[in-house]
Amino acid sequence: MDVKTNPMRHLDRLGIPYKVHYYGDVALGGMDVAKANGQDPAKVFKTLVTVGKPRSYYVFMVPVDGVLDLKKAAAAVGEKSVSMIKQDELLPLTGYVHGGCSPLCTKRPMTVTIDSTAESFDTIYFSAGKIGYQLEVSVSDLPRMMDFKFADIRRPTE
To answer: Is the pTM of this model over 0.85?
Structure first.
């Protein structure tokens, strides 16, 4: 594969092994990505960016088979409330487009919180920073690749 994204280069520099999964050049919803790659949706994480106090931004990672619980998310980062950023703010804040946002190598450093369900898996999947590309990484390597914490931040889809 000749595509190398900033998150891939970051992992290469750190010597962290990863697998790349490709699902096509069209932005898909998280459940469709999991289906296209034959993956357990509980192990496929979407990257969501929120804002709390003015200019306080946070990244939350939740499985695609659930949704971010904004109250739990706010509590996890010590805010009274958080809300999703507007789609047109994503690229300037992170360097990524909707459907290709990775928690790694964002333009602006942000606190990252990963749903605690990730702790029960050996590996998880998340965006490689480009539409169509996904990284599979070992959960045990997460502390070496980013500063984050685990917290209960999701609710199942109804």
So the answer is: yes
The amino acid sitting at 50 is T
What is the Cα–Cα distance from 61 to 50, expressed in whole angstroms? Answer: 11
Report the distance separating Cα 156 and Cα 10, nearest Å: 32
CATH code for the domain defined by 6-156:
3.90.960.10
Helices (H), strands (E): how many in the chain? 5, 10
**Do 132 and 26 touch, CB atoms closer than 8 A?**
yes
- Each residue of 49-73: pLDDT tens digit? 999 988 899 999 999 999 999 999 9
Report how far apart the first and last C-alpha atoms of the chain are (Å, whole number): 38
Give the gyration radius of the chain's Cα atoms: 14
- Using the predicted structure, report yes or no on whether residue 115 has a pLDDT greater than 60: yes
What is the residue whose two structure tokens read 């190598």? 105
